[in-house]
Every structure is written in C-alpha cells, then in structure tokens.
Amino acid sequence: MPDLADSIKALKENQMDQSTHGIHRAFKISFRLSPLLLLIFVNACAEVQLNTIPTPSPTSKVRVFLHAFTGHAVQVRWADSDEKWARIQVQSVERFLKETAIYELPTEEEVAQVSRHKTFSIRDWSKKDWSLVRKMGQALHTDYAMVMERSAAGGFKYFDTLLINVETGKRFRISSRVKLAPANKEALFQMQMVAYNELFRDAKNDLLATAIRKGRLASPKSFPEQTSMPERGSVPIVVPPKTTETTSGSLGPRKSPGSWITTNCLWG
Questions:
Q1: pLDDT digits over 169-217, tens only?
Q2: Where do the structural domains in the chain lie, given as residue ranges?
Q3: Helix (H, G, I), strand (E, B) or coil at 33
Q4: Nearest to 191 by CA among 90, 101, 89
Q5: FRET partner for 138 with CA separation of 20 to 30 A, picked from 16, 23, 120, 224?
C-alpha cells in the first residue's frame, strides 16, 4: 500500500510540474508577443503627420488636389504600371482642368513638402471615410480633392473617381467599368473623359458656388451682390461619344454588357 500511495503522490506532483511549466511557457510567449502587439496597435491608432505650406495669394480660381492609385486587382495584368498609370491620370486631369482657366493645382513640390516625401498606402488614404484626403487638401489650401482609382474584380476593370469638397465634406463620385478583355487605350481614355464630364456636371453648382465665393473674397468690387448661375457649359464639359451609355443613380452592377458609367452625390 505505501508503494501505491507514493505512486499517486508522484503522479500528482508530475501533473503540477507540467501545469506550472505550461503557465511559465505561456507567460514567455505572451511577453515576447507583447511588443509586437503594442507596435501593431500603435500603428493602427497613429495619425498621419503632414506639413503645411504658406497660404497662396487670394484668387478666384478653384484649387484642386489630385491623386491616383491602383486598388484591389487579382490576377490582372495592367497595360501600365501603377506608377505610370497614376502619373498619366494626374497629368491628363491637370491638363483637362487648366485648359478651362478656372482651376489651379498645387505643384509637385508642394505635395511632396506636405506629405513629407512619404508614400501612403491605399488603406491610409481611404480609412476614416477618406479623412487623409481632406487633410491633404487642407494642408495644401485646396478647395477640392480628386481621387482616381482603378481596380478589378468579377471579370471587369473598374475606374472610380471621387471629388470631395475639402471644407464641407460633400462628395461626388463616378464609377465606370469595362470587361477584362484587352481594350483599346484610346477607347479607355475617351471613356474616362466622359466620366470626368459627368462628374463635373454633377458637381457644377457646388464648384460654381465655390468659385463665386472665392472671387468675391479675392476681388469684392468685381462681383455684384446678386450673381446668377451661369448656364450649362460653364464647367469643363467633354462631349461624350454616342456609343457610350451614361446613367445617374446607384453604383450597383448593371445588367447591360460592355462599359457603363454611373454617378451619384454623397454627403460626408
């Protein structure tokens, strides 16, 4: 009997030793992971720090910040690299706006100064309802921020453009899509120009109100007390080709094949 009692006692002691060892091991793993978890938490909560530039001279021109990037795209080979596509989009829209003589844009040097020469991820730009876009616009003293994104899913390429009133947060968005099959670059370019046409048509009143307000501040004597809204055509408009279908309303998928464009106004 003493041998049996000793065996039971030894078994219990062995179980306690194993339990204690397991607890110590868990504490060691937790201790090793704590700095990593803390770093992840700090990065998730950290706010992006931006510089500011001196306030530009008063002008009636509407100031716009442009940014383009490539979003989610699985097993898609784009004709242009992400950097080249972004550069082409910004340059095309910049030329599109400057030709109207009623818009101005911050310089590349100003954008680099405000961003501290950093490149932000898509998640940085889009989180908190595009708050970083508005902060960039505020730091650059722009009236609007225009974000262009390309992505791909479900057999289609998507091109989305978002125009945000930096001061009020009011947003205008347009989406277009084409099949993944190889497409003519010129046709894609024309489709995007039609999209910009629709976007600025939707935002016309907001843009004009901003231009009039800035004009009164820049040169009060040049503006009468009552200023009527100019007729349609005062905003940059590109005549869409007849073969392109445009609709306003939901951003949901359409049943018709080929390409489509949808627009809607959003409030921030």
A1: 999 999 988 888 766 777 777 888 888 889 999 999 999 999 999 988 8
A2: 1-46, 62-266
A3: helix
A4: 89
A5: 224
- Dist CA 9 CA 99 (whole Å): 91
pLDDT in tens, 77-105: 888 899 999 999 999 899 888 888 899 99
- Are the C-beta atoms of 228 and 205 separated by less than 8 Å? no
260: Cβ contacts below 8 Å, ≥ 6 apart? 176, 177, 245, 246, 247, 254
Q: What is the DSSP letter of 16?
A: H
CA geometry: angle 9, 15, 18, nearest 5 deg: 140
- The whole-angstrom separation of Cα 6 and Cα 22 is 24
Band (pLDDT 50/70/90 cuts) for residue 252 is very low
CATH 3.40.50.10610 given to domain 62-266 = yes
DSSP designation for 49: P
Average per-residue pLDDT for the chain: 75
- Tokens standing for 92? 């095309």
pLDDT confidence bin for 227, thresholds 50/70/90? very low
